[in-house]
Amino acid sequence: ARSSLKVLVTGAAGQIGYAIVPMIARGVMLGPDQPVILHLLDIEPAAEALNGVKMELIDAAFPLLKGVIATTDPIEACMGVNIAVMVGGFPRKEGMERKDVMSKNVSIYKAQASALEKHAAEDCKVGKPLNSPVLVIANPANTNALILKEFAPSIPEKNITCLTRLDHNRALGQISESLDVQVSDVKNVIIWGNHSSTQYPDVNHATVQTSSGEKPVRELVSDDKWLNAEFITTVQQRGAAIIKARKLSSALSAASAACDHIRDWVLGTPEGTWVSMGVYSDGSYGIQPGLVYSFPVTCKKGKWSIVQGLKIDEFSRAKMDTTAKELVEEKSLAYSCLN
Ligand code: NAI
């Protein structure tokens, strides 16, 4: 029998936490043959609710679930984990300045970086045998990931990513709805940059599988105006639209996207398909190194690599630079909060 993988979920008593833990326990994240032990972390005010989540996990009698640790101690939570899904964060409340939210969150990620660095499984720290994923979901996701990376220097930078797969999936969904095709037939959209409203959803390389072969989205959608304006803003503003409708932010779609992110990273992307992941920039596409920026990536044997050589037109260039600029500003704001 395979040995269990220990999966950390922080903020596990929250909305996304509640949606993602049953997915992980059912094998959606790591496959139907991979047993898991869940390490759930939240903070003291949520301790009772967290215990309730643990009770429900026991009651669900998931065959793959070999254990649950529910704790408010970051050290106990990080102990020996192979995969870390960082959902815990401080939400923006009415009247709060951006800087206040930033300050709360980067302090959390700085502290948790140390706990992970000291206590995660060796493979998480040296990148063996899997690339031992760390996925940051909590906002500001790119900048939290950057802080985590910088304050956990012994964890390889390749192991630390942030979630933009939800935006990627939203873009697939919009194309599928607009062309009335199956979402599984649409691929290779790209989310560039920040998980924020400056992100650039790019369809210039996206295709649809049709009965007469693979066709570029640009060829199938005759309305350029829609692709260049409304499509982009719909994807950028989708999070706000969900909050308006549900009075709560996206949770099931975020949890599902997080499972897609880790699954593709660990098990590999299908041949000819790329996905979007927030990763540490190596300077590809002229994006300043030292930012966590969303790129198109393919994954194989637990390692991601940025898709190279895509043609970038002027329209795209400007949008890719705008979102990079915002990340530079966030980075300096984050550091000014920590000092
Ligand atoms: P939520 O407020 O329901 O849950 C957050 C949980 O984190 C709470 O239970 C809270 O007690 C806990 N928490 C706070 N500080 C913590 C700490 N220091 N350690 C451990 N846990 C802590 O929020 P929800 O809806 O689950 O969203 C979580 C985060 O994910 C938010 O920051 C949200 O903005 C972000 N998000 C990101 C998306 C993405 O695509 N990257 C998509 C949707 C949400």
UniProtKB/TrEMBL annotation:
One of its GO terms (molecular function) is L-malate dehydrogenase (NAD+) activity. Residues 164-332 form the Lactate/malate dehydrogenase C-terminal domain. The keyword NAD applies. InterPro entries: L-lactate/malate_DH (IPR001557), Lactate/malate_DH_C (IPR022383), Lactate/malate_DH_N (IPR001236), Malate_DH_AS (IPR001252), Malate_DH_NAD-dep_euk (IPR011274), Malate_DH_type2 (IPR010945). It catalyses: (S)-malate + NAD(+) = oxaloacetate + NADH + H(+). CDD domains: MDH_cytoplasmic_cytosolic. GO terms for biological process: malate metabolic process; tricarboxylic acid cycle. Keywords: NAD, Oxidoreductase, Tricarboxylic acid cycle. It is an enzyme of class 1 (oxidoreductase). Its EC number is 1.1.1.37. It comes from the Eukaryota. Pfam families: Ldh_1_C, Ldh_1_N. Belongs to the LDH/MDH superfamily. MDH type 2 family. This is Malate dehydrogenase.
